[in-house]
Each structure stands twice: as C-alpha cells, then as structure tokens.
Write a structure and sequence with these properties.
By secondary structure, this protein is of the alpha+beta class. It is built from 19 helices and 22 strands.
C-alpha cells in the first residue's frame, strides 16, 4: 500500500492544481483572444493539414476567396506551379513570403501578398500550415498607373525638343533631358551637386526675382531671358517654370522648360531686314528713276552734239568725257535700281556655269594676287535671269572678297543644284523647290555679327570713302531678290566669308544672243513720243529727228490717245513712258491696242524692267529701252522693234 500523503503534501498538491487551472484558464483566454484576432483580421487567414486538406478560414478569407471547403489552397493559385512550390517549402519546415496571383470569390484575379508558415507539434514535426493573404490588388493597380504616368512623363521629357531641367529646392539639377544636353552642352553627370553655370550676370537679378515669385505663389512663371551654352554662346530663351510639390504639399523643387528663341529671332530679324530693305528700295528706286531722266537729257544732248562734230574739234573730247560721266552715273543708278529691286532688264535662260567662268576670267585678269578655284556641277539646270545683272552681282561679290584680302588670298566658287524646303524659304518670301546655287568663299578678314547683319544695307561700308559707295552688296541683294532668289552671307571675324546665291532652276534651254549693230541705223517712219517730262520730249524728239524719223510729241497718256485716234494710220511706232500721272503707260498701252492691235509700241522708263513693265510686255508690247540711252542704243532698239517680223524685239 502506498503511503498516505501528509497534510502538507495535500496542501501542496491543491496549490499545484490551482496553478494548473489558472495556467489553463490563461491559455484558454489567450486562445480566445487569438481566435478573435484571427476571425476579425483584415487579412484572409486559412489553415491546412499536412496532407493539404483545408480546414479553417476566417471571415476575411470568406470575403476574399469564398468558401472552398476541404479543397487544397493550391486550387486558388492562378499559377498552380507556384502553389505547389509554397506547399513544398512549408512542408520542409520553412516559410514563404511573396506576391502571387490568386482567384477571388467572383473568379477575378487578385494580387495577393502571401505569408505562409508551418504549424509544428511539440516534437517539431510539421502538422499543417497557415497562410496570411493581404489583398494588394488596388495598390498594384495604383503602382501600375503610377508607372504608366511616369513612363508617359519620361517619354515627354525625352522626346521634348525643348531643354528641360528639374531642380531641388537648392537649385541643384536632379534631371536634364537629352534636348538640354544637345542645346546647352552639359550632361547630368557633369552637374551632379552643382548649379548650372549658364545664367549671364545681367540676368541674375531677373532670374532670382522670378524664382522667388514662383516659390511664393506656388504657381507658374514665364519670362524671356538669356542663357550661356557650355561652349560660350549666348542664347535667347523663354523660361517656363513650375513648382514641384512634395507629399506634404510643400515645394520640393522646380521644373523648368527653356525654349530656344535663337532661330525664331533670326527669322524675325531676316523678315524685318527684308521689310526695311523693301522700304529703302522704294525710295532708292524713285531717286534712280528721276536721276535717269536727268541723265537722259544730258546724254541726249551730248550725243546730238557729238554725232556731227569733227573728232578733231577741241570740244569733241569734252563731249566724249560727258558721255563717260553719264555712263558712270548710269552705272550708279543701275546699282540703286538693283538694290531697289527695280527689275530685270532682259530675262533669258542662262547657264550659271558659263556666267561664272566668264566673270572669273574677267576678274582674274586684273587681280593676279587672288587664287581662284572653281567646283562647278555639270550638267546644271538653266536659270531665267538678266545676264548683265547677274554678272554685276558676281563681280560685286568678287570685288568685295578682293577688298577683304588685302594681302592676297583664295576665292572658292561652287555651283550646284539644290532643293530648298519651306522652312528655309519662308523668311526670304520665296517658293520652295529646285534652285541653282552659287557659293563664293574667300579667305579674307571676315566679319563680326554686327557688320554681317548690315552687309546688304545701302550705303553701308567698312571701307574708306574712296574705295566704295556701299551700294555693291545692296545692289546684289536687290537684284537677286528681284529674280525671286535668295542671297545669304555667313562669316566669322578672322575666318573669311561665304556669299551664296540661290536662283530658281528652269527647264528652258539656254538662249544665245544676236549681234548688235555699231553704226547708226536710221529710218523715215513716224514716231509718237509719249512722256510727261518736257526734257525727255525735247531731247528724245531731237534724237529721233537726227535718226531721220518724223516725231509727234505727247505730254501724257490722254494726249497720246487723242492724237492716235485722229491719225492712227500715220503712226508707225509709239515710244511710251511707263510712269506718268493720270493715264500711266500700262493703261495707255491698253487703249492703244484697242485703237490699233498691230501698232508697234516700245516701252521706255527710268526704272528697270520690273513687274509693272513686265506685265505690259506680256500683254504684247514690242520692246523695252532703259533710260538713259545713247543715240546708238536708241537707233538699234527702234530698228529691232520696227523691222522684227514677229512683233516682238
């Protein structure tokens, strides 16, 4: 028999039993708390046996996945392979955490953060597993949307043609797009931890004020300023800036867009120059026209005196001198008219290669110190132009180059066919398409931008007064513009200059000129001389009479029409001034054609053959003569008009 416990032993046993009951009650209470926490957890919690049989799920599991009975949890995985991997890891005593895709209660696919653990007995054997499932579908969708927005923003930044910079609140760049590196030259690696050294000193105050304003108002700003490039150039830019807000709503930095205005400003300057030249050209053309009428009077009287004078007469040389001075003055007005876009004299299809070679030969014979190299594209399309004027343009540029090379140098001349696009043609106000170009490059002293921007202005010159009038390049500009072409000048101080002419290409065949008579050709026909200048009527009438013609003067268009209406069968030729008050040359011509469609008409003007004169010629006028003209030129022109079988000369 066992020994009976003593009183003390019984008391101790009772106390131990009380402790076991208390411990059990604490455990049960803890289990109750645990169960309550599991049941009401926002995460879906499920438990399975070691055999994979599902035996518990909480309310959140019900809501997320629905009732799955005793099916293995792996049935919920979209990718069954991952489900098997999770089970294998847990059964090996490990744990698994990661994002998986699982089917929801409605059959939809959910993004789930899974945390799975092994359930072990007191001996450490795995008897089951528990999985905690957090629905992160909304978060993943938000992350995807954020990535898409970031990608769109990145694409905009990368593809933007404008330079863009993102700064922190200290003004240190955190991002620059490719356009910034391309335009300004700095990469982000070069700027790490440093401010961009591209704000000119005179723009610092303005820039600081705008930055202060944008941070104070937390809005946007836009202002025009200047910035340096890495290689030292200064660009005109428009700065558009906006605050970057942090998560707390406070400014976290600034994003800046810099629009390069250099090309726009250049186009604007070209347009303004074209407008200015147009205005100056109108003024110069009017002066040249009036001056040519005066020269006509001097030339005419000198020709009349010289034609019958013995060459041994003491005044004969003086008369020839007057004619030479008139010719020089005429050349000056021709330069003025060229600048004024006063017109083309005789337009024919020309081969620019031939014109370049003949001009080079003429220039090279007198300027032996200049080496000339040519690179001429052959074959080259023709251009429709006045040969004498284009020769004048080439020689003006050659002379300008020679003067820029006082110690000698080299002239490079190239011709080629080019296709000009609308962007290039727009500021010059010409049509895009096929052109023939002539580029003339010298090795002279070059020009700075101030001189280059004014190089085509009339009377602008950097030479001594005795070495030029400042009309040569202005005249070249006007002539080329009047031919519907473009002339450009590129230069840097100390690096020579390149002038490039562009004339529209033509498909017409090059024409060859006819020989000109050098003896006076007289006639007996009746000529109606129409001009509003009494000087021209007097001198012109005397010149015509000297050539044997019967002259009927008319001081304006209305008088000419009255005379012609009364004696149209007795008039053989009308010499008609273009610019007259009242009924001008064009309207008078229209009235003449109604009276007599076959009557020969020779148009005359102190202006060149411009758009107004060309319009009259296109209507059927028989020829054009430029004032001032010599007796010889008048003689040749009248006979070519009167004797021409096709009514045109």
């Amino acid at each position: 028999m066992s020994e009976k416990p003593t009183y003390d032993q019984l008391v101790q046993r009772i106390r131990d039993l009380e402790k076991d009951v208390a411990r059990r009650m604490r455990i049960e209470a803890q289990l109750l708390h645990f169960k309550t926490a599991v049941e009401h957890s926002s995460d879906a919690i499920g438990m399975s046996t070691a055999q994979g049989r599902h035996w518990y799920q909480n309310e959140a599991f019900d809501r997320l996945f629905g009732e799955i009975g005793q099916d293995p949890p792996s049935s919920l995985y979209v990718d069954k392979k991952i489900g098997r991997q999770v089970f294998e890891v847990i059964m090996a005593g490990g744990q698994w955490t990661g994002e998986v895709e699982m089917f929801g209660s409605a059959g939809n696919v959910l993004n789930v953060l899974l945390r799975a653990y092994a359930i072990k007995d007191k001996d450490g054997q795995v008897v089951g597993l528990v999985g905690t499932h957090t629905d992160i579908t909304a978060r993943k969708q938000a992350e995807t949307a954020l990535r898409e927005r970031e990608e769109r923003l990145r694409t905009i930044l990368v593809a933007s043609p404008d330079p863009m910079v993102m700064y922190d609140t200290d003004g240190v760049p955190q991002y620059v797009n490719p356009a910034f590196t391309e335009v300004f030259g700095w990469s982000l690696d070069e700027l790490k931890g440093k401010r961009i050294p591209f704000v000119p000193e005179d723009q610092l105050e303005k820039t600081a004020s705008e930055i202060k304003k944008i941070y104070a108002s937390r809005t946007t700003t836009r202002f025009e300023t200047q910035r340096f490039t890495k290689d030292g150039r200064t660009l005109d830019v428009i700065v558009s800036a906006a605050v970057i807000r942090g998560p707390d709503g406070l400014p976290g930095g600034m994003t800046v867009n810099l629009t390069d205005l250099s090309e726009r400003k250049s186009l604007q300057a070209q347009y303004e120059q074209a407008q200015r030249m147009e205005s100056l050209g109108t003024l110069a053309g009017g002066i040249a026209h009036d001056f040519n009428n005066l020269l006509m009077g001097i030339q005419g009287r000198a020709s009349l005196m010289a034609v019958d004078m013995d060459p041994n007469h003491p005044f004969f040389e003086h008369l020839r001198g007057i004619e030479e001075y008139v010719k020089s003055a005429g050349d000056l007005t021709e330069q003025l008219l060229g600048f004024a876009r006063g017109g083309k004299y005789e337009v024919n299809p020309l081969n620019l290669n031939e014109l370049v070679l003949s001009s080079v030969d003429m220039f090279g014979r007198t300027k032996k110190e200049i080496r000339i190299h040519t690179d001429l594209q052959d074959p080259l399309p023709s251009v429709e132009a006045d040969q004498r004027q284009i020769e004048q343009v080439l020689l003006n540029i050659f002379v300008n180059a020679w003067q820029a090379m006082p110690d000698g140098g080299t002239l490079f001349i190239q011709t080629k066919q080019e296709s000009l696009d609308p962007a290039f043609c727009m500021p010059h106000q010409v049509a895009p398409g096929p052109y023939v170009s002539v580029s003339i490059t010298d090795t002279g002293v070059g020009m700075d931008e101030t001189v280059r921007s004014r190089i085509f202005d009339p009377f602008f010159t950097t030479k001594e007064k005795s070495r030029g009038t400042g009309l040569g390049l202005a005249s070249a500009f006007g002539i080329i513009k009047n031919h519907g072409g473009i002339i450009t000048a590129d230069s840097q101080k100390g690096h020579g200059a390149t002038f490039t002419l562009y004339l529209q290409a033509s498909t017409k065949k090059v024409s060859r000129g006819t020989p000109i008579a050098h003896t006076l050709q007289k006639g007996t026909e009746t000529v109606l001389l129409v001009d509003d200048e009494a000087l021209i009527l007097t001198v012109g009438g005397a010149m015509l009479e000297k050539l044997g013609y019967r002259v009927i003067p008319a001081g304006n268009g209305e008088e000419a029409i009255r005379i012609l209406s009364g004696m149209k069968d007795k008039v053989d030729l009308v010499i008609l001034d273009l610019i007259m008050p009242g009924l001008d040359g064009g309207k008078t011509f229209d009235r003449i054609r109604k009276i007599d469609p076959t009557l020969r008409v020779l148009l005359s003007s102190g202006y060149a053959l411009d758009g107004q004169a060309e319009a009259v010629l296109k209507k059927g006028c028989n020829g054009f003569i430029q004032k001032p003209f010599t007796l010889q030129e008048l003689s040749n022109k009248i006979r070519s008009v009167v004797d021409s079988p096709d009514m045109h000369a």
